[in-house]
Amino acid sequence: MVALPYQSEMDLSARLVASMSPARTANSGSAAGGTETAKVSGRGSIVCGVAHSGLQGVSGHDFSPAESSPKLAGALAPEGNSPDNEPLVILLLGPTGSGKTALSLALGQQFTGEIVSCDSVAVYRGMDLGTAKPTGEERSRLPHHLIDIAAPNQPFTAGEYSRQARAALREIAARGRLPIVTGGTGLYLRALTEGLFAGPLRQEELRERLNRSRRTRGDAWLHRLLAKLDPASASRIHANDTAKLIRAIEVCLAARRPLSEVMARDPLTGFRLLRIGLNPPRQQLYERLNRRAAAMFAAGLVEETRALLDRYGPVKALDSLGYRQAQAVLAGTMNLNAAIAAAQQGHRNYAKRQLTWFRREPDVHWIEGFGDEPETQRAAAEMVRQVL
User: Fold this and answer.
1) Domain 9-30+199-262 coded CATH 1.10.20.140
2) Out of 3.40.50.300, 3.40.50.2300, 1.10.1740.10, 3.30.460.40, which CATH number does the structure's domain 79-196+267-387 have?
3) CA 88/CA 86 separation, integer angstroms
């Protein structure tokens, strides 16, 4: 924690830079305790230094991955250099609506598995219709983890997801069962497998002071300040990205070192990872997404959203797809048909972004089909058998 005595906002920049001077940081240690999530740009670049892997295993048109080797060469990377007797974890990747839930259930029943959800909205209780969570009947077939574990007004970060998911993997493996991670939140998956940097906790008072100075001095002020504190990070963060700029400044001051120097990750160890990706035909995927979005509203998404707003208010979780459009209906700014159309378009766009993100995952073995198709399930099961 950095305690700055109160002075006028006019000299805040100079004092913050002074707090990072060599004389004041010579004896400073590593970053303060606590963990904070990485933030993701529109194209998935992680500001806190997670390196991009290349577009491995991908060729052809937009999202047509190259066929996998029949013997799954390199399937278990980067953790694949682990001893063969370490527990296996299946990672099911793919866009929303591709049938990941159906495939996870099929594999779980065939190989005595348990499901670990990797969905940033499914963690919230009461947000059911708009999240396409596994149904009660589906969840009764196999144990499911990381679903309905937080209230919508409780922030749930990628770092917290990583901690709880890793604990679930260890517990499942200790029972001699197969952990199957399934979901479409790319940042959560990366936090689980690669870790996030260990940084200081949020400092709300400092953030408010920085925001006040930004409003007084203009949007470019934060970037100029970061350029003085940490030129390397400033070169990577856009001058208009207020959230990332504030976080970088916050870390610099709490750690007494530039963010670019304190970044470190904690990759998942002790497991072999098999990544299986679903890449169904694009037009068929979009048709499914259109039907599913319409079905959500028909099932009562607007009413569910009204109940959540009454209980929690306009919390951040309710800005997710479907709920955002339902709120517009409740506010009278959009009629039902327009809301459905907007949700359909939003889900199609989201699916495209997910595929772009997952193309960067290493060693994904892609199947060009939906997870509820028998041929897809047979192909995935064969992949699992080869590495068990």
Assistant:
1) yes
2) 3.40.50.300
3) 7
